[in-house]
C-alpha cells in the first residue's frame, strides 16, 4: 500500500460521499478533531498506568469516539451513518461528576498547566473548543448535520478540564490560580 495518492495535489480531498476543498469548514472541523485525538494520545503517553489507569481507560475510549465524531463530520453522502450516539455524552457527564468530586475546591480561574500530562490535556481542551466553534460554523453552512458531535465536544472539553485538575491533584502538583481572577466559582464544587 502506498501512503501517498497524489489525489489531493490540486486542493481537494476525499470525504465520505465525494470530494471537497481542503480548506472547507467540514475539513477544518474533522481535522481539528484529529488534532484533539493526537493531544489525547500524547497525554496517555505521559500518564503512569499505576496512578491513572482509570483516566487512561477513559482517554482511550475517547480516542475511538473522536474517530467516530470525525467520521460523522466527514460524511457528505445522502446516507449518513451515525456512529456517535448519546451514550458517550452521558458517560462523560458521569465521569465529569466523579472527577469534580475528586479535585480540590475551585474558586478562581486557573492557568493551564502543571504536570506534563495535565498540560497536554489542557491543550486538548482548548483545541476541542476550537473544534466546537468549527462544528457550529459547519452546522450553519450545512443543512443536515447531526447535533450529537456538537454536544459530544462540548462535554468533552469539560471532561478534559476536570481530568487535568485530577491529574495534577494525584501528582500533588497544585493548580495555579489566575492572579487577577475574582471568585468565579461560588460555593463548593463538591456534591452535597
Automatic annotation (TrEMBL):
SUPFAM superfamilies attached to this UniProt entry: Cobalamin adenosyltransferase-like
Domain Cobalamin adenosyltransferase-like intervals: 3-166
Catalytic activity: 2 cob(II)alamin + reduced [electron-transfer flavoprotein] + 2 ATP = 2 adenosylcob(III)alamin + 2 triphosphate + oxidized [electron-transfer flavoprotein] + 3 H(+); 2 cob(II)yrinate a,c diamide + reduced [electron-transfer flavoprotein] + 2 ATP = 2 adenosylcob(III)yrinate a,c-diamide + 2 triphosphate + oxidized [electron-transfer flavoprotein] + 3 H(+)
Entry keywords, A to Z: ATP-binding, Cobalamin biosynthesis, Nucleotide-binding, Transferase
Pfam families associated with the record: Cob_adeno_trans
Keyword Nucleotide-binding: yes
Uppermost EC category: transferase
Gene3D superfamilies: Cobalamin adenosyltransferase-like
Molecular function terms, GO-annotated: corrinoid adenosyltransferase activity
EC number: 2.5.1.17
Pathway in which this enzyme or protein is active: Cofactor biosynthesis; adenosylcobalamin biosynthesis; adenosylcobalamin from cob(II)yrinate a,c-diamide: step 2/7
InterPro entries in alphabetical order: CblAdoTrfase-like, CblAdoTrfase-like_sf, PduO-typ
Highest taxon in the source lineage: Bacteria
Protein family membership: Belongs to the Cob(I)alamin adenosyltransferase family.
Identification of the protein by name: Corrinoid adenosyltransferase
Lineage of origin: Bacteria, Bacillati, Bacillota, Bacilli, Bacillales
Amino acid at each position: 500500500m502506498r501512503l501517498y495518492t497524489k489525489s489531493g495535489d490540486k486542493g481537494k480531498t476525499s470525504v465520505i460521499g465525494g470530494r471537497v476543498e481542503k480548506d472547507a469548514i467540514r475539513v477544518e472541523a474533522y481535522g481539528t478533531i484529529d488534532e484533539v485525538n493526537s493531544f489525547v494520545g500524547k497525554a496517555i503517553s505521559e500518564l503512569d498506568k499505576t496512578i491513572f489507569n482509570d483516566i487512561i481507560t477513559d482517554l482511550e475510549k475517547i480516542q475511538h469516539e473522536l474517530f467516530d465524531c470525525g467520521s460523522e463530520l466527514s460524511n457528505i453522502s445522502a446516507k449518513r451513518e451515525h456512529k456517535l450516539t448519546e451514550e458517550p455524552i452521558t458517560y462523560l457527564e458521569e465521569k465529569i461528576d466523579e472527577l469534580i468530586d475528586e479535585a480540590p475546591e475551585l474558586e478562581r480561574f486557573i492557568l493551564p498547566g502543571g504536570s506534563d500530562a495535565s498540560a497536554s490535556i489542557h491543550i486538548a481542551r482548548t483545541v476541542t473548543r476550537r473544534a466546537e466553534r468549527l462544528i457550529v460554523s459547519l452546522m450553519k453552512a450545512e443543512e443536515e448535520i447531526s447535533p450529537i458531535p456538537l454536544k459530544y465536544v462540548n462535554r468533552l472539553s469539560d471532561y478534559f478540564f476536570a481530568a487535568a485538575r485530577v491529574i495534577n491533584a494525584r501528582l500533588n502538583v497544585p493548580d495555579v490560580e489566575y492572579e487577577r481572577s475574582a471568585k468565579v466559582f461560588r460555593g463548593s464544587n463538591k456534591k452535597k
